[in-house]
Amino acid sequence: MGIYTDANAYLTFLKGGAFKPHWDFMDVLVVQVYGNKRWRVWNAEVPYPYAVEMADRAKVDASKAPDQEVEMKPGDVLFIPRGEPHSATVSTKHSVHLTIGLLSQTGVNFLSHLRKAAANDPILRMDLPRHSSDEQSSAHEAALKHRLHQLIDAANMSQFLLEGDLSRLPAKQTAVAGELPKMEDILRLTLRRRVSLPDVAPDAGAQLVTIGGESRRLLPASLDVLRWLFDHDPSTLLTLTAGLSTRHGQDSIEAAIHELLQFGFLAVNQAAH
Fold it and tell me: Please, is 37 exposed, middle or buried when counting C-beta atoms within 10 Å of its C-beta (0-12, 13-18, 19+)?
């Protein structure tokens, strides 16, 4: 989805729920996994709340009747927009549900991006005049506004979002050094998105690649493993080896897997034995 996400699992063994009625500053997907839970949801009083307003989260009037009341059973999914107060209570003896937080960039984040660009402008870094004449203060204010207008006109929201995507690091996994996966084990990428990779000959030297704002030197076979998994993720090592057999031998592929595991660009799911 191109946005920041996190997931929490809630296991309930008694009556009630984990939290009192509250609202979140991110959108939430609720996925009921086991048992049943009853959700009460109230309409938001503050549209599109921002993180700085978290201090008001406890001020939810739960005495009012909810605007929605939903009984969730396994497999059900509920979407709760940010700012909508909600609470949940278990309806069966046990319950397990996931909440997936969806944190999007906002206009406030775009302003923060503009602020960083503004720091490169000497006029915007100048002290504001406090003891100058009205004429001098007005002139300085006009110059400031002119620079701000130029900054805003030059800003590009799509470029801002793209730069944010490219700066995000992979979801790195810890790998045991020296231990390679079995042929039937499943490999999957930890990279959050496809990245640009140089296309080089198998016998070329290590190539400099930027991933998540960090530069790495990767073997040609490592580049081909990443490129192949971009189109076949997830995949067993056996299938990957067969797919790259025309370009690389077994030793080169093993060296590539070892390198990518060390950098945390691969995760391994062991096959059931």
Answer: buried
Which range has the worst mean pLDDT, 6-15, 132-141, 146-155, 180-189?
6-15
**What is the domain extent for residue 214?**
186-269
Q: Could you read off the pLDDT of 100-128 as tens digits, one per residue?
A: 999 999 999 999 999 998 999 999 999 99
Beta strand spans in the chain (E): 4-12, 27-34, 37-41, 68-72, 77-80, 86-90, 95-103, 186-189, 207-211, 214-218, 235-236, 266-269
Look at residue 55 and give its three-state secondary structure: helix
How many domains is the chain partitioned into structurally? 3
The span from the CA of 245 to the CA of 84, in Å, is 54
Boundary-marking domain end, from 86, 103, 120: 103
Same domain, 90 and 115: no
Asked if 85 and 122 sit in the same domain, the reply is: no
DSSP structural state of residue 169: P
State the CB neighbour count (10 A cutoff) for residue 15. Answer: 9
pLDDT in tens, 46-70: 888 877 556 555 567 777 888 999 9
